[in-house]
Design a protein that fits this description.
Elements: E1 7-9, H1 11-21, H2 26-36, H3 41-45, H4 49-62, E2 67-69, E3 84-87, H5 91-100, E4 115-118, E5 123-124, E6 129-132, E7 139-140, E8 143-149, H6 158-161, E9 165-173, E10 175-176, H7 177-184, E11 198-206, E12 217-222, E13 225-231, H8 239-247, E14 257-259, E15 280-285, E16 289-298
Parallel strand pairs: 3-14, 5-11, 6-16
Antiparallel strand pairs: 1-2, 3-4, 7-10, 8-9, 8-14, 9-11, 12-13, 12-15, 15-16
Helix pairs in contact: 1-2, 1-4
């Protein structure tokens, strides 16, 4: 990515040119480039240093011949995680969220880093339209950082967690607040209040480009108006603790994304506001960029369960 030039480098095309210059036939060069730069970002990240080294070499030598402008691009999600995981780590958001939802924070929030699991099939990218789910009225964004995993993590500790971190992206945990309030009563976590869109993008900044992870500036704008600003300094649980906890008993994969949790004042709910169809939501994270999405129209005519009679 060349944000300052509003251009992208097609790494596969650049690597084909590099291999041809070294004597490979076009067919052989394409086979090699397709292996190092597959369609899946998760598969590419799983290659480890080979992916980054080849990307740097290809972009440095032939990036100018294999680049194109941002204009006209259709953006995929920055990652294709095996499963979506989203944390709850920002103190101000935890407090304000519970106040707005008229809930008392559970003592367990102070005992373990809470997170939930969502569907990877509803991940969307930069500039994608956000589907408006059935029966939802109060729609919301959530300004978060996406911690991108670089190598398999299983039963790791906070002391080693940073070595498993590949990079940083922007994560928008879109939420249907009215559906969420009803689902809370069931006590099994969010389902239809989240099962429609997770924004991930616009790209990944590798971890070596950040000197600190606890002072990253963040902001959200709706239709050009700033609705919230803050940074990553107010986290109840550290990045390393969150990643380590997620890995306990589980196998976190390369390319998986773990949401940081929503920044304080990083949701419309905390402001007593909500979104409308057609609203444009922009999340900005310093060192990454801007993830922009437009809210779609309300879904009509979708089946919905009929309430049952009490059985107790």
């Amino acid at each position: 990515m060349l944000p300052e030039q509003s251009r992208v480098v097609d790494l596969r095309a650049a690597e084909v040119l590099r291999q041809q210059a070294r004597g490979a036939s076009r067919e052989a060069a394409l086979r090699f480039a397709s292996a190092v730069f597959p369609e899946s970002m998760s598969a590419a990240i799983a290659l480890g240093e080979q992916f980054l080294e080849t990307a740097n070499e290809a972009a440095t030598r032939y990036g100018d011949d294999a680049s194109c402008p941002f204009e006209g691009l259709q953006w995929a999600a920055a990652c294709d995680p095996s499963i979506v995981r989203d944390g709850l780590t920002f103190v101000k958001h935890i407090r304000q969220f519970h106040e707005r939802m008229k809930l008392t924070p559970a003592p367990a929030l102070l005992q373990v880093p809470g997170y939930f699991k969502g569907s990877p099939w509803t991940v969307i990218g930069h500039e994608a339209e956000v589907p408006w789910p059935a029966r939802a009225e109060k729609m919301d964004y959530e300004l978060e950082i996406g911690w991108v995993i670089g190598r398999t993590a299983h039963d790791i500790t906070p002391e080693t967690a940073r070595s498993h971190l590949f990079g940083v992206t922007i994560f928008n945990d879109f939420s249907a607040r009215d559906l969420q309030a009803n689902e809370f009563a069931i006590g099994m976590g969010p389902t239809k209040s989240k099962d429609f869109a997770y924004g991930i993008g616009p790209w990944i900044t590798t971890i070596d480009e950040f000197s600190r992870l606890d002072r990253i500036r963040m902001a959200v704008r709706v239709n050009g108006e700033t609705w919230g600003e803050g940074d990553t300094s107010e986290m109840l649980w550290s990045i390393d603790e969150l990643i380590a906890y997620v890995s306990l008993g589980d196998h976190v994969q390369p390319g998986d994304v773990i949401g940081s949790g929503t920044m304080g004042n990083g949701s419309a709910l905390e402001l007593g506001r909500s979104l409308n169809p057609g609203d444009v939501v922009e999340l900005e994270v310093s060192g990454v960029g801007v993830l922009r999405n437009r809210m779609g129209q309300r879904q009509q005519g979708t089946w919905w369960p009929t309430a049952r009679k009490p059985f107790m």
